Amino acid sequence: MYTLDQVRCFVAVAEHLHFGRAAVELNMTQPPLSRQIQKLERHVGAELLDRRGRSVELTAAGRLFLTESRKLLGLAERAPEGARRVASGRRGLVRLGFTAAAGFGPLSRLLSTVKDDLPDLDIDLVEMVTAEQLQALDEERIDVALGRLHTPLPHLQSQLLLTERLLLAVPADSELARLDRELVRSDIRGQPIIMHSATKARYFYDIIVGNFEIDPSQVRHSLGQIMTMVSLVAGGHGIAFVPESAERSRIPGVTYLSFSDFREDVVRLHALWRPDSSNPALAAFLSTLR
Amino acid sequence: MYTLDQVRCFVAVAEHLHFGRAAVELNMTQPPLSRQIQKLERHVGAELLDRRGRSVELTAAGRLFLTESRKLLGLAERAPEGARRVASGRRGLVRLGFTAAAGFGPLSRLLSTVKDDLPDLDIDLVEMVTAEQLQALDEERIDVALGRLHTPLPHLQSQLLLTERLLLAVPADSELARLDRELVRSDIRGQPIIMHSATKARYFYDIIVGNFEIDPSQVRHSLGQIMTMVSLVAGGHGIAFVPESAERSRIPGVTYLSFSDFREDVVRLHALWRPDSSNPALAAFLSTLR
DNA sequence: CGTCATTACGGAATGCGTAATGATA
DNA sequence: TATCATTACGCATTCCGTAATGACG
Fold first, then answer.
1. What is residue B135's three-state secondary structure?
2. In Å, how far are A35, A154, A186, B72, B92 from A150, measured between CA atoms?
3. Does B116 share its domain with B97?
4. Same domain (yes/no): B189, B241
5. What is the CATH number of the domain that holds A170?
6. Are strands B240-243 and A267-273 parallel, antiparallel or unpaired?
7. Confidence (pTM)
8. Are residues B220 and B281 in the same domain?
9. φ and ψ at B193, to 5 degrees?
């Protein structure tokens, strides 16, 4: 098989139609250049250059081989660059699991940042609740998750992305909304509540029952998806505890109220990933989180 | 720059995921194969293979580079073949000048033969009279001409393709057609004749004035293109001398009559070309003429 | 006779194969 | 400890550069 160097030699000679000048460009002397061309012609099995007399001309076969040579060299030069980009994680695919609530606040900012820093990085977005995210991470169906966790998990690494307050979503025409002031925790007494599921949204469930006095009779529904809860609030079916970022969802008919006696940033959003991931794109993705 | 051999090595290892078996396929031992891969990785600037422990795996960069490698090798293997085909004339372009009259008989047979023998040979067809053909050959605007010549030209080579009789084209409703028998030369006395131009169709002109008695007053028009003459005959404007192959034109309203006292194959069609042509496709084309 | 491509030849570098080493399960 | 990839080393080949030869205008 001929070598890419021989092809490079041939292209140089074909462009200059002059062995001497081509040799200068290639940083070599004429004799080895001449031999490389001969060798290439022997491998190819056809005369590529017509050296009669003073002038060097391309043969018909040479003209065709020249166009193929340019393709070949272009491909050969681009291929390593692509591989390097993949190896450094600047190019590749990151599969990202996220909760619907995270989709409004931090996710869009995160995606913008990644697109600026790593324009060749593809991101697959998969919406799922935190419990599903953990299983998907375990089965390597996703590379990173944006989820809510109380305690770090042993086999996962995490980084805190965002802390936010807990707000109360109420129907815009409800009596709570008409108060036109910040709430105190006791205001929710007797109100119909659309509650977080103790299994599918354990994180919020624990925060709420730990900080508010909820009477079981208040609970109208138990759901896992925050955005579904907001929809029900908009329909006047009750009130719901939601993180600040849900406020961006722009669902009409919902008012978000804060608590004057409960301002702590108790809702945390973490990025979660397996430290043993073999995806080089993940490392690059994570580096943009900082 | 890395070599195609290194790429070939990489593809073999990537396919077997095993240095030993890949080395067998490449007819070499493991150590040089290992070194070639290392060298390739150094040139590429990224790890392509993940040799941890027992098993060899492709890295993400390696997977991308593998697809590029296959493209590269495919291109590198096809390029010489294309060049060889061009060099041998099996592929290329022949520009063929032909007279309209030649287009009906020998040309279509010739093209069929060429398409069978040389499927990758493109043929540009350019219709022109013999005088134009000679100039086009001289200026290398065409490679070969199908023309009519009395005497060989010094700077051109030629081959006789066809000999045919001279027929008389007459309007189907003329008195000559109604004779319903072969003609003798004296039958044309007094008939209106559509004559060949002495300059643009010198070949036919010479044959006709050398074998028939034409009174200048009989000549209605002087033309260079035989098919135009046949059209005029169809329109009832006179009679015309044409080669046998014109009979295939199927222009309605024209009858072709032979002469019982002039049966010789006087009309010759030659292929003409420059012996110093640099077009390798021409040689292949000419070889199919025999 | 001057220019440009090609052969001739000596030295350096590269590459293969055999043998030894290292790492992993 | 057995297998597989990598390093060590000796030998052959390849390739470069300088010098000589050849061809064309």
1. helix
2. 71, 13, 25, 52, 73
3. yes
4. yes
5. 3.40.190.10
6. unpaired
7. 0.68
8. no
9. -115, 135
Residues A76 and A107 both lie in one domain: no
pLDDT of residue A130: 81
Q: Is residue B20's beta carbon less than 7 angstroms from any atom in nucleic acid strand C?
A: no
User: Hey, what are B11's tokens?
Assistant: 């593809």
Residues A158 and A170 placed together within one structural domain of the fold: no
Give the range of the structural domain holding residue B203, as residue numbers without chain letter. 166-264
pLDDT tens digits along B12-51: 899 998 999 999 988 998 999 999 999 999 999 998 998 8
Q: Which of A178, A194, A177, A172 is nearest to A252 (CA)?
A: A172
Check which CATH number belongs to the domain holding A57 and give it.
1.10.10.10
Q: Which of residues 69-88 of A touch B (CB under 8 A)?
A: 69, 71-72, 75-76, 78-80, 82-84, 86-88
Q: Do B1 and A76 touch (CB under 8 A)?
A: yes
B154 and B282 in one domain?
A: yes
Instruction: Indicate the number of domains in chain B.
Output: 3
Identify whether the C-beta of residue A191 lies closer than 8 Å to the C-beta of residue A241: no
- Mean pLDDT (chain B, rounded): 89
Span B67-124, pLDDT tens digits = 899 999 999 999 999 899 988 888 888 899 998 777 777 788 888 888 999 888 888 8
B175 and B54 part of one domain? no
Q: B35: helix, coil or strand? A: helix
Which of B69, B88, B107 terminates a domain? The answer is B88
Which residue's CA lies closest to nucleotide C4 at its C1' atom? A54
A83 closest CB neighbour out of B65, B82, B92: B65
Looking at the fold, whether B157 and B279 belong to one and the same domain comes out as yes
Nearest nucleic acid nucleotide to B35, CA to C1' distance: D6
- For residue A103, is pLDDT > 80? no
Q: Which of A1, A84, A281 lies closest to B5 in CB terms?
A: A1
Average pLDDT in the A255-284 region?
Answer: 88
Q: Which chain A residues touch B84 with a CB distance below 8 Å?
A: 44-46, 61
